[in-house]
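**User:** My hope is that you can spare some time for a protein that puzzles me. I have put the entry right below:
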Amino acid sequence: KRSAKFDFGVTFMPQKKTFGAAVGGANLMIAKKISKDRQEAAWKYIEWMTNVKNTAEWSAASGYVAVRNSAYDDPVMKEHVSKNPEYLVARDQLKFANGKMMAKNFQKVREILKRQLDDSAAGKIVPAEALKTAQKEIQAVIK
């Protein structure tokens, strides 16, 4: 918002029968095959990073949706939201989110879909043909 050279707004993604939401982002995790000391240190970091105060501050500064609902009651977040009410749109749309598709070779599947959708949107191929090609390529990848 600070660096945009134009006005913009945000809203829910459109719906046909129901709303939906695409979600993504990074994860905090603890590796199984590391020493107990490192696992404990990693857990302390995760607890610190995800406590209410740090979650609220990080979320307000980064623009990412807070990882815990209680962060929205924090004074830092309340101030941020009062100045940027559009910030709540992504949080509110999470009620309609679903898990990501998970399949063997998921990244390759994603790349195939993206390429076909991009080509279709650019007018290089008709949508039906793009989907047919994507299906053929994906079936070869997930077998």
Observations:
- DSSP finds six helices and no strands in the chain.
